[in-house]
Amino acid sequence: MVKVSTAALLALAGSASAFAPTAHSSGRSTAFSSTRMGGCDAALTVLRQSSEVAEREATSSPSADASTSSSSSAPSSGSGSTTPRREKILNEPNLWEYNFGLQDPGLVLPHGIQAGVSLPEKYAITEEQIATLERDGVVHIKGVFDSEWVEYLRSATGHQVDNPHFWAFAGTASKLYDYIQRNVWQTNKAFANFYYHSAMGHVLAQCGRTDEIRVSTDLLMVNPNKGFKWHQDNQNGPITWEEGIRFWITMDETPEEYGAPVYLKGSHRNDFVDEQAVFVDVEVPELGEYRDEVAEFRTMPGDMLIWHPRTIHKVDGPSDGIWTSYRRVLGGTVAKGDALYHDKRGSGGVLSDLGRHDLQDGDKLSSSFFPVVYPRFDDSEARDRDSGKVGRSPRDIVSKIGGLAGKASGDKFFSFFKVLGSQSER
């Protein structure tokens, strides 16, 4: 694992221009571009040097990872043969390979759709599927997206992984995923176009019995290493449990041995788990009525999983955390029509709302930072995204999370940040 010095991170954070989504960037770089980075060259050089020093230190001393790799290729007892070493299909980017600003893979939309012109597609679901979501807190809708859409999403994901964005750095460096990026639609035009023109909004509008759908926050997730134990989702953007709907869109076949999401049916109705909690102890008596009501879904390419944000669930990865195939998912939370903006400063929930918008607590959730995608995208909101007005900066981040530790109770604060250390506990 690459270690970065405090000085390096402070140097990078001190330059606001590095975070602004200004010019389009592409190509996985092996060195920093002065035209892309502007005033950040010095800071990023420090980051690169810090990374290189850390890597030299790592290779000169034993580590847990090294001993694990060594043991995995050692001869098996009594056989004289060696066990083939499992290799990850995707490795973490080097620090100097991250990109900044807007990115556009230049992908052609399926089905003759014209970007910025065509209306979003539709996909009708049944009343039984809607009722299942309301009763169980989760529903699996198969085959929403055909092979053309799946290939489009795979291509968009491949471009993103090959050209990693700085906003993926924290999650990827934490080893939670091989690649993970929040609000990827803000920086990658291909994902924004997917939301504007696919049937995703129509499906979610039917599930929520609403006439409008806005993207509250999203996540591009590739290979969840060892997975996530039982948890609930509280990174839903600036909305309440009841104003949001969680979604997953899968691009790959789920392996038979691991990777299938598991849900406790009906657990969205529990009133025991605190809204600030992330990981959940399902063995407590208060959750006893849900423990035996388990639903497991082996999703396939083009499927959607849709659930209530409070539904307790988990995903188990391979025991060694090594994915030898891809598990690519586009997921997140959408807001139903008439949702309000809730300022979550002072809680872990603020981490999915770090934009520089001017919404105030109690305002209607109507902003380019939370774009409408159903019944139709808004032209002015799309222009704001394309011009770089929708984004994040260090000043905005410091303003919103500066009082997080002090305002949130110790237990709740620890529960959220425990996510970053979860890999070492498995």
Describe this entry's structure for a reader.
There is one protein chain. The protein is 30% helix and 13% strand. The chain is built from 15 helices and 11 strands. The strands form 2 sheets. Strands 1, 2, 3, 5, 8, 10 and 11 form a 7-stranded antiparallel sheet that branches. Strands 4-9-6-7 form a 4-stranded antiparallel sheet, with no helix packed on it. The two termini are 17 Å apart. The model is unreliable at 1-79 and 404-426 (pLDDT under 50).
Structure at a glance:
The chain is α+β, with helices and mostly antiparallel strands. 30% of the residues lie in helices and 13% in strands.
Helix and strand arrangement:
Layout: H1 6-13, H2 34-37, H3 41-60, H4 64-72, H5 127-136, E1 138-141, H6 147-162, H7 169-173, E2 179-182, H8 184-187, H9 189-197, H10 200-207, E3 213-222, E4 227-231, E5 244-250, E6 262-264, H11 288-291, E7 294-296, E8 304-307, E9 313-316, E10 328-336, E11 372-374, H12 379-387, H13 394-401, H14 404-407, H15 410-417
Antiparallel strand pairs: 1-8, 2-3, 3-10, 3-11, 4-9, 5-8, 5-10, 6-7, 6-9
